[in-house]
Amino acid sequence: MSLWGKDLNQTRLPSLEGEKKIDILIIGGGIAGLTTLYYLKDYPNACLVDASLIGEGVTKNTTGKLTFLQNTIYSDLAKNIDYDTAVSYLESQKLAIELVKEIIEKEKIDCHLEKVKSFVFTNKEKEIKKLQEESAFLTSQGIEVNNEDLPLNIPYLSSISVKDTYVFHPIFYLNHLKNLLKDKIYEYTKITKIKQKRGKYICYGEGVKITASKVVVACHYPFFLLPFCLPLKSHIEKSYIIARKVEKNPKFSAINVTNPSISVRFYEDESGSYEICLSSSHKTSKNQDDVKNFKNVKRIFNIKEEDVVAFWSNVDIITDDKLLFIGKLKKNFYVACGFNTWGMTNGILSGFILNKAIRGEKMPYEDLFLPHRSNFYQTKNFFPNLFGSTVSFIGSKRRNKDWYKENLVFTKRNGKPIAIYTDKEGKKHTVCTTCPHMGCSLIFNEKEYTWDCPCHSSRFTLDGECIKGPSTKDITYRE
Ligand SMILES: Cc1cc2nc3c(=O)[nH]c(=O)nc-3n(C[C@H](O)[C@H](O)[C@H](O)COP(=O)(O)OP(=O)(O)OC[C@H]3O[C@@H](n4cnc5c(N)ncnc54)[C@H](O)[C@@H]3O)c2cc1C
Fold first, then answer.
1. 262 falls in which pLDDT band (50, 70, 90)?
2. Ligand 1 pocket, 218 CB below 6 A?
């Protein structure tokens, strides 16, 4: 359970059943979908459905930084795409911070929004130049960049910092919006199929059929392949996070340039101050030993077992060109995803952009975040991506089952690969280990007791219930 997860509003809103005709349907109630609903709140006949509780997806597992200083994204974009793209992306991130401040202030949301400095640092000689380039780019855009020391007990060679960035409690933000918009939200309503008929979209779930004129897909990883083909334009990155109690709440957040990833922020409430430490990020097709990855976080931050308050992992979609997918997939059908681990600013930006699109106004950053865009940076990655997906698919099939230390038995029943896990009370949990989404073999997460897909990040409970898409089906095994 993440540090924020315990604060999730557990009051369950009704599910949608039977047939319903509406104007706008938003699928997914994380930061992107809920902020979109917020902007459309005056719109008659708009509603949002979520497969689970609002916020229960990736958003509850974020570190909750609201910053435009995102590793060395601007110098990377300027180099790999062009300078103007980098300028526009910076502008979009600064806008997103203004938007979230505006919403929080207007709605009087108590979500522990705190102004902090943001640092990027490196401990590698060869990355110092990258930091200097990032600093030069930001300075050229009128941003004050400082070269002050990193106030963290971690070895580093160089660091830069900026002001006017923030941290917040993402779940308090969502809880407030859930309460504000509760008449338009349906929880535990999972959409599994969408068909287009006579200019309308018919969205099906278990026992529900919703006909909508306009659809926004904000469910983190879209559950359909066409017309988007997301697996060929992105990969999934997983990170490991530990929260520990500390004496103070220093007003900064920090991240390093590249691997092994290190990211830190602090949080304070009436129960005390906490340091939120993230590391060991990797493509989900590699480094799949969760026990080892959590141990690495402890080692890097020198965390003692008794100081651990919470630990959790999280995944996000990394796009090939490091830009987002926000916009139109086809007429009246929109998507918001691919946030490259910066979905707090970008989820809010999605709501702002898609609100304009739905109202028929000019969409800000339309070309920059076009889901169907193609640029050299992206095309260059197409074949490596295809290769990577194939390798991770085949690799998942060949995984050495002896790798697991836990009480697991792998077998086959009726031709299906099955795993039986015996828990500490001796209860057996049987699942089918093939992901229903695209057929990858699932990995047992020995730390969080879930079955995780290394290809596209679907997750299932010990008994096979799907708790994260893109899979829309469970992996429960019944004789
Ligand atoms: C380790 C880590 C740390 C991060 N830290 C930061 C940070 O500090 N700052 C930052 O800006 N970003 C951060 N991010 C990124 C950020 O957390 C995500 O990009 C963001 O939370 C994604 O929000 P979302 O609304 O797209 O998805 P989600 O929060 O996953 O919301 C999607 C919702 O859709 C629902 N859903 C799924 N499928 C269906 C379906 N078929 N039908 C109906 N509903 C469905 C789910 O239940 C879920 O509630 C981090 C990411 C990682 C991995």
1. very high
2. yes
